[in-house]
Write a structure and sequence with these properties.
The complex is a heterodimer of chains A (167) and B (180). Chain A has 167 residues and is an alpha+beta fold. Chain A is built from 1 helix and 9 strands. Chain A has 2 domains: 29 residues; 129 residues, Immunoglobulin-like (Sandwich), CATH 2.60.40. Chain A is elongated and about 85 Å long. The relative contact order of chain A is 0.22. Chain B is of the alpha+beta class. Helix content of chain B is 36%, strand content 21%. Chain B has 4 helices and 6 strands. Chain B has a 6-stranded antiparallel beta sheet with strand order 1-2-6-3-4-5. Chain B starts with a helix and ends with a helix. The interface between A and B is medium-sized, with 35 and 28 residues. Chain A: It holds the Pfam family SPC22. Chain A: It is found in: Endoplasmic reticulum membrane. Chain A: This is Signal peptidase complex subunit 3.
Chain lengths: 167, 180
């Protein structure tokens, strides 16, 4: 009944239970944080805008992104993944989301940033629907915890419009 | 002889009822594990509710040996979500992030493009030959929770099967020889 094996088993079971409980509590504590991030994105330039040989529209933009995501960080945050996506509707597609830029923020000190960049991923439509197209730029973030539940949210910025003609 | 002798004696002294009890309790352990797994499948709606990260393509977010909890609801797939998907002709599912989504107006079908956070380019090279987009049926679930390191147990067991057999053997012996 009180052999080494039983004692080791009881100790291990207890240790694992406590560890699991601690992980759960740490993850739950993230819910106490109510973040208030801010973001601004400007389209500084349309570098070029054309129809590819296969018929799809493609555009190249220069963006200025400034954001403060410091309030997202808690003691359980490993990193925050942040990206800016162009979102628009066409007659063919109810929703198009095209990621233009993304980055990984490793710590709170780096969470207040601004960056001047061209689009990192190609902004290609499915078809030729981009001329004169209104679109939103949305800053999404994805909080990756040290353990537990992941959180994601976004800020939508509307009122952007692509030119009427290729250039 | 001490310990080994005792063990052999205890195996010799087994009686039919005792063997039966032990078989039943072993069966209980196996079936309750199966019940938990199948129950999780029902609750999460994903055919594999827990996956182990095998590659470093999502570092520094997910490292090799971390465990992800999946959920598969009817909510549409959106950019930024981390999805687990199967590609035709590949056995091992891949965990990557969605970077582009095109949802068709008439059918509601989605075209999805993924990329590993730590990879330089998108995943078109990983997809089946000539495949440009992932569709709903490729996707097994989206990652909702994360637990570090625990997956190393399964990685070690698949890569060093000898450890698995030793472990199973030791547990089996323990079950056979225990009296309680």
């Amino acid at each position: 009944m009180h052999s080494i094996g039983y004692r080791a088993n009881a100790l291990l079971t207890f240790a694992v239970t406590i560890l699991a409980l601690m992980c759960a509590i740490v993850s739950l504590s993230d819910n106490l944080n109510s973040p208030s991030p801010t973001a601004q994105v400007q389209v500084l330039n349309i570098n070029w805008f054309q129809k590819k040989p296969d018929g799809d529209d493609e555009v190249s933009l220069t963006l200025n992104i400034s954001s403060n995501l410091q309030s997202l960080f808690t003691w359980n945050t490993k990193q925050v993944f942040v990206f800016v996506a162009a979102e628009y509707e066409t007659s063919k597609n109810a929703l198009n989301q095209v990621s233009l830029w993304d980055g990984i923020i490793p710590s709170k000190e780096h969470a207040k940033f601004w960056i001047h960049t061209t689009n990192k991923y190609r902004f290609v439509d499915q078809g030729s629907n981009l001329r004169g197209r209104d679109f939103n730029l949305t800053l999404h973030w994805h909080v990756m915890p040290k353990t537990g539940k992941m959180f994601a949210d976004k800020i939508v910025m509307s009122g952007y419009r692509l030119p009427e003609a290729y250039r | 002889m001490g310990w080994i002798g005792d063990q052999i004696d205890s195996i010799k002294s087994l009686q039919f009822r005792q063997v039966l009890t032990q078989a039943v309790s072993l069966g209980m352990i196996v079936t309750s594990a199966l019940i938990i797994w199948k129950g999780l499948m029902c609750v999460t709606g994903s055919e594999s509710p827990v996956v182990v990260v095998l590659s470093g393509s999502m570092e520094p977010g997910f490292k090799r040996g971390d465990i992800l909890f999946l959920h598969m609801s009817n909510d549409p797939i959106r950019a930024g979500e981390i999805v687990v998907f199967n590609v035709d002709g590949r056995e091992i599912p891949i965990v990557h992030r969605v970077i582009k989504v095109h949802e068709h107006q008439d059918t509601g079908e989605v075209d999805v493009l993924t990329k590993g956070d730590n990879n330089f380019g998108d995943d078109r090279l990983l997809y089946a030959h000539g495949q440009l987009w992932l569709h709903r049926h490729h996707i097994m679930g989206r990652a909702v929770g994360f637990l570090p390191y625990v997956g190393w147990v399964t990685i070690i067991m698949t890569e060093k099967p000898i450890i698995k057999y030793i472990l199973i053997g030791a547990l089996g012996l323990l079950v056979i020889t225990s009296k309680e």
